[in-house]
Design brief:
With 302 residues, the protein is mostly beta strands. The chain contains four helices and 18 strands. This is Transcriptional regulator, ArsR family.
Length: 302
């Protein structure tokens, strides 16, 4: 489950604010239980236990399965990721660019692969030829088992400006036929062949529906990813604030009209688990691939 610091996440935070409900989660992490079994384990009455179960179900942490007259509780998730608002400690001017996920300029992908738009699949799935379909610009989600996709990010830097830092955010997950919540994948991210870092996605998630995923997408298809931050600075490159490579902002050629951003799953990676990129109107974050370029004015030495 992917959360942010907003009112949309309050139901989950409220559900976790209870020793009893934490204990219920611990019990359900081992096996499915009915109301009577949970009540007995907790030493609580059935009505009180049901109250706690209803709050957990409302927060999409558990689900209920009916078996005859019994109500069986099942844990839906095993991970909760919380994204906090990010703030730079140094104030710089900046410009932003957001690319649709279908606006890639180069690719080499292997099945399973495909593109999805607001109303259905774009072309045929598991056929890389359709990655050149003219409708690909409308894609809100793309996926591939291994290979890469590349995007061109425009360089708007002026001659009297100094590039200080680049920050990229994208919603990513692994790729497995339909989905697999436990399917690690090493996704390599680079800019102009400079390694930013390798992020290991924990899985291809369908434990709950994506906040923006269209209704036509099947429940057992990949529903959402994790919003990942990739940063190139004077001190190195970072993924979610953790040092990931020695690429420096000074390594980036600022005289070029554009830079090549690549998302890749290498065939020799430790975890070859594919890549899914979520864009506008898909997943849990209504955004494409966002880039923020921080710059300062060059000092005048005349």
């Amino acid at each position: 489950m992917d959360l942010d610091i907003s009112k949309d996440s309050l139901a989950v935070f409220a559900a976790l604010d209870s020793d009893v409900r934490i204990r219920i989660i611990q019990l359900l992490s081992k096996k499915r239980l009915n109301v009577s079994e949970i009540s007995s384990a907790l030493g609580l009455s059935s009505p009180i236990t049901l109250m706690h179960l209803n709050k957990l179900e409302k927060a999409h942490i558990i689900r209920t399965v009916k078996k005859g007259k019994q109500r069986i509780s099942v844990l839906k998730i095993d991970t909760i990721n919380i994204s906090f608002p990010q703030q730079l400690y140094t104030t710089y001017e900046n410009w932003k660019v957001e690319l649709p996920v279908g606006q890639y300029t180069n690719f080499h992908v292997a099945p399973t692969c495909g593109l999805a738009g607001p109303k259905g699949f774009i072309g045929k799935v598991d056929n890389p030829s359709y990655f050149m379909d003219p409708m690909r610009s409308q894609a809100g989600m793309l996926w591939f088992a291994k290979g890469f996709v590349e995007y061109q990010i425009p360089n708007y830097l002026k001659s009297d400006q100094q590039l200080e830092m680049i920050e990229l955010t994208a919603e990513l997950s692994s790729e497995f036929p339909f989905s697999n919540n436990h399917w690690p994948s090493d996704i390599t991210v680079s800019l102009d062949d400079h390694l930013i870092g390798v992020w290991t996605s924990p899985g291809d998630f369908s434990d709950t529906r994506g906040r923006y995923t269209p209704a036509w997408v099947y429940n057992d298809m990949n529903q959402y990813g994790l919003l990942e931050s990739f940063r190139i600075s004077k001190h190195g490159s970072y993924i979610d604030g953790q040092h990931a490579s020695n690429t420096l902002i000074s390594d980036i050629d600022t005289d070029k009209p554009s830079w090549t951003l690549r998302f890749e799953v290498k065939s020799d990676a430790k975890h070859v688990g594919g890549c899914t990129i979520f864009g506008n109107k898909f997943g849990n974050h209504d955004q494409g691939i966002r880039s923020t370029f921080y710059y300062s004015e060059k000092e005048d030495h005349d």
